[in-house]
Amino acid sequence: MVKERARILVVGGGYVGMYTALRLQRKLKKELSRGEAEITVVSPDPYMTYQPFLPEAAAGSISPRHVVVPLRRVLDRCRVVIGEATAIDHAKRTASLTTLATEEEGTGSEQLVYDELVLAPGSVSRTLPVPGLAEHGIGFKTVEEAIGLRNHVIEQMDIASSTRDPAVRDAALTFVFVGGGYAGVEALAELEDMARYTARYYHNIRPEDMKWILVEASDRILPEVGEEMGRYTVTQLRRRNIDLRLNTRLESCADRVAVLSDGARFPTRTVVWTAGVKPHPILAATDLPLTGRGRLKCTAELAVDGAPHAWAAGDAAAVPDVTAEEPGRECAPNAQHAVRQAKVLGDNIAHTLRGEPLQTYSHAYVGSVASLGLHKGVAHVYGRRLKGYPAWFMHRVYHLSRVPTFNRKARVLAEWTLSGLFKREIVSLGSLEHPRAEFELAAGGKPPHHPTDDPKGSS
User: Fold this and answer.
1) Using one digit for the tens of pLDDT, what is the confidence trace for 258-276?
2) Residue 316 and residue 341: Cα distance in Å, rounded?
3) Who contacts 184 (Cβ-Cβ below 8 Å, separation ≥6)?
């Protein structure tokens, strides 16, 4: 039984934030109903994004609304606050929050007092000071970016199909992806697959007219699936005429020209940046201990080291891997660990409130799967290597089993079934990003500038 009323604050609504809150509301069901505990979840978005499905959402295989899980529906016993934590003073057990309401009121941040803190803000894109990147780069971490990229690629094909200027056409049909990890490889492979299919509906665009370029600073791609599967992926992508440039960096994309460290220059209207992530800035705005890489120092019980009543997991946490043979190794910041850590984290907070012993997080990494487009993939699971259709099928089965809620599982499965029976959707809904543009023009105003309105791509 909980000794006194416990106020639990969960910062972040991603994998760890949502799953921890979900676990807590199940474990503390009686305490919540008696008013002995309360759970507050602070998240910038009212939904959790299942990121492994972003490439398929970009390719049109899954509807974007089925890639996200509404927090208020799943966390029905929690108080969900849409906003961001800007600073945390754990010594005083207070968090500074900005919400949509505080912005409207202009009153500044509000203070929230808590007893137990779960820090799970995830990560943000790690960018470099590359000239032109802030102006022209496209990220690939959110569902909005995934759908925006899909619309953008199809709009470039529309531009190339209708222009008479060879330079404009060439730039429109050149797509540069930076980063050879999961996000970069899967996004490139799925979108190239989608664009190759879409080209059949254009009278003057052939798949070979498009240039797809993957830039990776190291000497390999997809390190998670092992060296052999990484080499296989390189071979398969090059067979699709995708230009893979290893040991190469993006030096500049100013003036819509991608300049690479090997001297190559590509006029392009599409630069997708997936070159890694870094810890969320909120971690630096706390009084909690951090590692040299800016992550929270954690124990194997997922408590923040040396900070009682503070907990963390996922991308934000440096958690010791107790299954590793070499000492000092940390759990990889990926979804496989995050979901399992959240379960232990929720249990341990409940154990703490009840004065029970804590669990140690222990999970041996089972392997990785990656999709390379429709019916194509690679996998390295339990020491076994799979490629082609079997790996793609395993990728779908695994992620279908992991996507939260039966509701989402059923919807995703239904969409996959229908997409197998009917042709791909090739529609671009770029106007969704500027819904008031047409009305503003009709009302005599000036619609917001859209980069694709200008064939030369000036912004």
Assistant:
1) 999 999 999 999 999 998 7
2) 12
3) 140, 177, 178, 214, 216, 221, 272, 274, 275
Q: Is 234 helix (H, G, I), strand (E, B) or coil?
A: helix
**Looking at the DSSP assignment, which residues form a beta bridge with residue 125?**
277
d(CA 338, CA 345): 10
Which CATH superfamily, name and number, covers 133-275? Answer: FAD/NAD(P)-binding domain (3.50.50.60)
pLDDT at 428: 64
Angle at 146 between CA 246 and CA 264, to 5 degrees: 30
| Whole-number Å distance between alpha carbons of 296 and 372 | 34
Q: How confident is the model over 409-439, as pLDDT tens digits?
A: 999 999 888 887 877 776 666 556 677 777 7
Domain ranges of the chain: 6-125+278-354, 133-275
Which of the 8 DSSP states describes residue 434?
A: S
Asked if 227 and 220 touch (Cβ cutoff 8 Å), the reply is yes
Helices (H) and strands (E) in the chain, counts: 14, 24
CB-count exposure of residue 166 (10 Å: 0-12, 13-18, 19+): exposed
**What spatial distance separates the first Cα and last Cα of the chain, rounded to whole Å?**
61
Q: Do domains 6-125+278-354 and 133-275 have the same CATH topology?
A: yes
The class that CATH gives domain 6-125+278-354 is alpha beta
Strand order in the sheet with 110-113: 110-113, 94-99, 79-89, 37-43, 6-11, 116-119, 310-312
Alpha carbons 141 and 146: distance in angstroms, whole number: 8
Nearest to 13 by CA among 77, 89, 81: 81
Closest CA to 191 of 63, 54, 334: 54
Burial of 187 (0-12, 13-18, 19+ CB in 10 A): buried
Alpha helices in 355-405 (DSSP H): 389-402
Residues 6+ apart with CB under 8 A from 226: 380, 385
Residue with tokens 């996959």: 416
